[in-house]
Amino acid sequence: MRKYEVIDLFAGCGGMTLGFSLTRRFEPIFAVEFDSDAADTYELNFGAHIARQEDGRPTPIEDVPSFPEADVVIGGPPCQGFSPLNMRGVGLERRDLWREYFRALEEANPVAFVMENVPELLRSAEFVDFKEAAETELGYRVEGRILNAADYGVPQTRRRAIVIGTRLGEVPWPERTHFPAGDVPAGGKPWRTFADAVKGLPLKPTGKDWHNPRNPKPVSVERYRTIPNEGEGRFHLAERRPDITPACWIRKKTGSTDVFGRLWWNRPAFTIRTEFYKPEKGRYLHPSEHRPITVREAARCMTFPDGAKFKLPPLDQQSMTSVAKQIGNAVPPMLAQCIASALVEHMDDAGVRNEQRELTAA
Q1: Which is catalytic among the residues 13, 79, 301, 338?
Q2: Is 79 a catalytic residue?
């Protein structure tokens, strides 16, 4: 069977490319990623086809002169402008980058595309404009849905907007495979848990392969020890030790319920964001150890296999902060693989060939 060529826009470290590659039916041929560290990680895993400038820096998508033809275009435009966590309006100027995604569709002429973003994308004016243009000007059928990664085997309750466009008929969606415990139908599987994700990793960080310990301040460790049970968080800390609870947490009686929270062994992790190594940013404390989760544990929760390469300091000059950002911004490879499997079946059924792609767009 032939492989389908794929372009990854806003590729990050390559989570979506990895998922598509795991089907063994897609071959990445071109990618765009503005962040230098993420671009280096992508190349380390998938080869040197990131768009770069003469000085070696990654090319911003606005400056890519043209896009090669491909069967499929994938990628997620920057989500900060759409995120409900973005109270300061950071990145709002980049909300219009969907226009560059649209230009890539015009030039690459794929038979299908996949876009990923935060759920708020589907309620945005930008998505309405993009969908209308893709349907009326380029001939795609476009649908957007909010998928929970846990429903597709990812040990993390990560809800994301997935937009699929195709010129081949009905939009293909992956079949749900996993369900909450106690609500598993015949033939289904239970949600994968944090325990499933980190199976085989030592409880004590080894300092190897990004299973690295941190050096928290003594007061932070004391806070961890004050809430030793699974699922506890800042409200329990405030009840038991107001003297070591930040005053802003005491004043804030509602909201932010997962801040400084412990994960559960027998449930999926919460959404892995870019600063998962900071417990004050969310539910990122280990279920039983008095520490936040490690980079390797977060990567496992995202379904990055241990064989996926992330550059190690000091020789490769990528910090923990940078690698954590790459992981938190990625599309879980297992979710991407499920989407890719549905798409490749859709394309096989339509008998896609390069010459048919040209005829479809004519």
Answers
A1: 79
A2: yes
